[in-house]
Design a protein that fits this description.
The chain contains 19 helices and six strands. With 410 residues, it is mostly helical. It has one domain. Helix 8 runs antiparallel to helix 10. The radius of gyration is 21 Å and the shape is globular. 40% of the residues are buried.
Length: 410
């Protein structure tokens, strides 16, 4: 009933169902690449077309607040496609950003009640059922999720890192549903959320994604700083206990390990040290086109020019800020920060309307900005869909609370 009453579902059942199932589609989509045009790319374009087509049909409009937040980053991104040495590849990559804008706008424009917020939270939670089921199979048959780095749980996602950040988001949404005072959930659903948080934590540890561990810690720690201080103590205790787990120790020890000399006379660095070398090496090319960059998603295209390797494999920056600076220049970084700082200010200005809920939203955004330092967060498409759906929903809910506040004054 909640789905059918939701204006999101009424606006476009296809988009709603796509969001519900996107966390489970990677195994299917990776098999569909026909001459460079994959079903995944078509789904991205379809989402954008469906959103704007439905908007025109319903004579709706995108809020001016949304345009203020997103317009600068999108305009610079579109220009970066024009100047790119590989404009087709750049356009295909930038379509992902346009889907994030569409999903954010989708939630921002059509969440009009507490029931709609409830339906989006439930959508995100229910989207995790298949990934968790796949994870259970991978625990039973670990060879299904074993790589050269050992066992790394990836669920139904293409890479353990993407699954890890998705688990962090699911945990945050479940925590919101438990703590929410402005939106009400059934006791049965809250019991489900209590179950999913520790389950997400176990799966998160099994992904062996260090930056996602930090994101998980940051969300609950920041929430504790902003509202319930006991969570600061709880997270510190849990972090200390986690250090006693062997594979956690191994992953942390890897960061502190010294470089090694290979048989061929080369130097093997730990993953963080290697990334730092890459970032420093890219600086000269960044300076060459400091203002507008080299073109969207061209870091990997130029990679071997500033970081020659024996092989021909190309890499991305593993740092969203460095990636954007290289691709879109410092103008792109500026508008990327404008987008996030603008959203943070919205929650801070309206913090008193829903202290618990806003504390969780602020924690989620803070953790995202933090891990952008070590991961290509904009490239984690399936995770980002749910992230921007959540943030758009939260911004829309602030408007609802503000209207209720003014109505009470009158």
């Amino acid at each position: 009933m909640i789905i059918r009453k939701s204006p999101l579902y009424l606006f476009s059942p296809i988009i709603y169902l796509l969001l519900l199932t996107r966390a489970s589609l990677d195994p299917i989509l990776r098999l569909t690449d026909f001459g460079g045009i994959s079903v995944g790319a078509l789904l991205n374009l379809s989402l954008i077309v469906l959103f704007f087509g439905g908007l025109i049909q319903s004579r709706g409009t995108i809020s001016s607040s949304v345009f203020k937040l997103w317009s600068g980053f999108i305009v610079v991104g579109l220009f970066s496609i024009v100047i790119s040495p590989t404009p087709i590849a750049s356009f295909r990559a930038f379509v992902s950003v346009l889907t994030y804008f569409s999903i954010f706008s989708f939630a921002y424009s059509f969440v009009r009640s507490r029931e709609d917020v409830e339906s989006i939270m439930k959508l995100i939670v229910y989207s995790s059922f298949i990934p968790f089921s796949v994870s259970a199979i991978q625990f039973v048959f670990p060879e299904l999720s074993t790589t050269r780095d050992g066992f790394r749980l990836h669920g139904s996602f293409m890479h353990p890192n993407i699954y890890a950040f998705y688990l962090v988001l699911v945990s945050a949404v479940c925590f919101y549903c438990i703590k929410a005072e402005s939106v009400f959930f059934s006791k049965r659903f809250i019991r489900l959320c209590y179950l999913l948080i520790p389950l997400s934590a176990v799966c998160l540890i099994a992904t062996q994604t260090r930056s996602a561990w930090i994101a998980f810690f940051t969300i609950f720690f920041v929430y504790g700083l902003l509202y319930e201080r006991k969570y600061v103590v709880v997270m510190c205790v849990l972090a200390i206990l986690a250090l006693f787990l062997p594979f956690v120790q191994e992953r942390i020890a890897d960061l502190a390990s010294d470089s090694q000399i290979t048989e061929g006379g080369g130097e093997k660095l730990n993953s963080y040290a290697w990334r730092q070398v890459v970032w420093v090496s890219s600086w000269e090319l960044i300076q060459n086109k400091l203002f507008l960059g080299h073109g969207y998603n061209t870091f990997s295209y130029y990679f071997l020019d500033f970081f020659p390797l024996e092989g021909e494999k190309q890499f991305d920056a593993h740092n969203a800020y460095v990636q954007i600076a290289f691709d879109m220049g410092f103008l792109g970084v500026f508008f990327f920060l404008v987008l996030f700082i603008g959203i943070l200010l919205k929650y801070l200005k309206q913090f008193s309307l829903d202290p618990k809920g806003n504390s969780i939203y602020l924690a989620v955004i803070t953790s995202f900005m933090l891990v952008c330092y070590s991961d290509n967060m904009l490239f984690y498409l399936s995770y980002c869909w749910y992230f921007w759906l959540l943030i758009g929903c939260g911004c829309a809910f602030l408007q609802i609370l503000e209207k209720e506040k003014h109505a009470k004054r009158v």
